[in-house]
Amino acid sequence: MSSVATVYYANGILAVMIAIEYRDQYRKLNDKVKNVQKKTTATLSTITAKRNARVVDYEKIFADNLIECVIHHQKLTETFNDLKTWFNINFSLNLTTSTLTICLIMFCVFEEKNLALMITYVETVGHFSSTLFVQCFIGEIFYEFNNSVKESLYDIEWHRQPLCIQKLVHIFQLQLDTPLQLRGFYIYNASYYIFSQFAKTSYSIFNLMRKINSQ
């Protein structure tokens, strides 16, 4: 039982580490987006000190800074697409095994008279439940990543920029419209809602098992 718990905890820790890295990368991307205008102005000031800056210089510098953000976001999205496959397998397996295992273990807890075994059963239920909750929590975090960048992008006063910049901002916004969704069985989003449904389903199956056993 301890080896099973170790595997589940190892998967959970790996998922948390990946989520932390993504959070840090999206914070850096957020800072880049927020500072696009400031960075452009600073670069333009440097150019002005050397020669006469033109409107074309501003547009090009702004576009280059924004394209840097777009490329950063595209790389994160590409990496996320690889992550989705690994997460889908783990989350799908966890959803299935956790629901069935927790029901059986809870049933054993109520039938078991040995206190030591009861404590072991309860610990195992905690292992499975906490791992699934962590995965659902991570799913909620990933879902909000693009929204945070989109808000930062909207705040850079894009409506005051030249038309070519506005088009570029609009394209970036369209990319950010799609949230990063981690799923199980390619259907169920990893979220608090799914965790609540998992708990509800487990409890229903547990009650059904007790009812059948009592007849």
UniProtKB/TrEMBL annotation:
GO terms for molecular function: odorant binding; olfactory receptor activity. It is found in: Cell membrane. One of its GO terms (cellular component) is plasma membrane. It comes from the Eukaryota. Signal peptide: none annotated. The keyword tRNA processing does not apply. Keywords: Cell membrane, Membrane, Olfaction, Receptor, Sensory transduction, Transducer, Transmembrane, Transmembrane helix. GO terms for biological process: signal transduction. It is a multi-pass membrane protein. Pfam families: 7tm_6. This is Odorant receptor 10. It comes from Drosicha corpulenta. The lineage of its organism: Eukaryota, Metazoa, Ecdysozoa, Arthropoda, Hexapoda.
